[in-house]
Amino acid sequence: MGRRKIAAIASVAAMLFGGLLASNPAEAATAVSSVTVTSVNSGDITASVEGKSELAEFGEAVRDEAPELAARSVSDLAVDYRVLKVDMKQVRAQFAPGVACVDGDGNSRAEDVIVAPRNAENIRYELSGDAQRDPNYDPAKQGNRCDPDLFWDEGASPEVDDDPAASAPVRPYTEKYASACFARKSQWKDIYGIYLEVSYNDSCWSDYVTKYDGNSSWNYYSVKAPSSCHIARGTYLTSCGHGVERNAAKGPVVKWDDWAPAADSNGDCRDKGISVSVGPLSVGGSYTHCEKQNIYKYAEDGKMSSYWKGKVTGTRATQHQVSVRVAQNAGRPRWTHWINSDACVCYK
Question: What is the chain's alpha carbon radius of gyration, rounded to the nearest angstrom?
Fold first, then answer.
């Protein structure tokens, strides 16, 4: 292997491990903490050949969590989903003015391709606090300004009376009233425009309510948040994360009721079941647990995230579930999600 190629691989590894350093730290300190995806920094490619290909891949990628989406044609998916290509150079320029988000050879983050529900609101990039909780957090990344997390708000669901009066006793039951998926493909290019690494995060969610819960003060709700990640180019997938929190601007106040998993876990690949109480009943699911899963439960009611961590060339998943109670007649919770994934050109 030539010296130039070895140097290029080493510089890519440095970039993906946090070698993106500020050329002017004082200027970088004035960076924004949130950048909204707009028509200025992104393009809608849904109707293009590339967009149709992305929708087809998306439907297949979420088959396990959302088989109903996998069964739909590309043209049918386009009714409810759109494909956006985001210019990450513009996004990074707002997050990290004065920061060289390239390595010494000019390799840089090129673009994100997003598949989002058409009713998803306020799609944006933010700097999540989860990174600082990771024992491997590198302060040199300055809060990960060169690779921020992707956030969005769930669209509104129809407001209905989730605890209606009944003329006779009715047995309580849980109802899934909303579900959808969201995908993010992150791409890096070298100075010649050649893709070096591509990582994917395919995330879904399902919202539940318990009807006729028998409580005159509270209604009970849950959101399940599974994600899977993989790489198409590059060497190793190292992280896959999904977080959920209350959309305080648009939804009612929520109170913790239950959550799962309860703690971090390690071990070989195996099926792992999770379940939470939703008032007098429960809602659960399962996923394939591998290597390490970090669980972050925040002090804020309803805020939680889960991260797979490791170093593999295959697909890995994470999943968690939140259960909350809401004052009766206050409306259904509104949820905000964030996702990320990371990969490296490195030795195992």
Answer: 21
Compute the distance between CA of residue 16 and CA of residue 105 in angstroms, rounded to an integer.
13
Q: What 3-state DSSP class applies to 62?
A: coil
Contact by Cβ (8 Å): 229, 220: no
Query: 320 near 306, Cβ under 8 Å?
Result: yes
204: DSSP letter: E
CA atoms of 6 and 2, how far apart (whole Å): 6
Q: Are 216 and 325 in contact (CB under 8 A)?
A: no
Which residue, chain included where needed, has tokens 């300004």?
A: 145
CB burial class (10 A; 0-12, 13-18, 19+) of residue 139?
exposed
Q: What angle do CA 238, 269, 114 make, to 5 degrees?
A: 45
* DSSP code per residue over 212-258: S-S-SSEEEEEEEEEEEEEEEESSEEEEEEEEEEE-TTTS---EEEE
SS3 298: coil
Distances (CA, A) of 337 to 2, 58, 155: 44, 18, 11
Dist CA 186 CA 165 (whole Å): 49
**CA trace torsion 246, 136, 241, 254 (10° rounding):** -20
pTM attached to this predicted model = 0.86
- pLDDT cut 70: percent of the chain above it: 79
Amino acid in position 230: H
Give which of 205, 209, 319 is closest to 261, Cα–Cα.
319
User: Are 72 and 59 contacting, i.e. CB atoms less than 8 angstroms apart?
Assistant: yes
Out of 78-87, 129-138, 171-180, 210-219, least confident range? 129-138
Distance, CA of 50 to CA of 54 (rounded, Å): 6
Q: How far is CA 171 from CA 208, 280, 281, in A?
A: 16, 11, 11
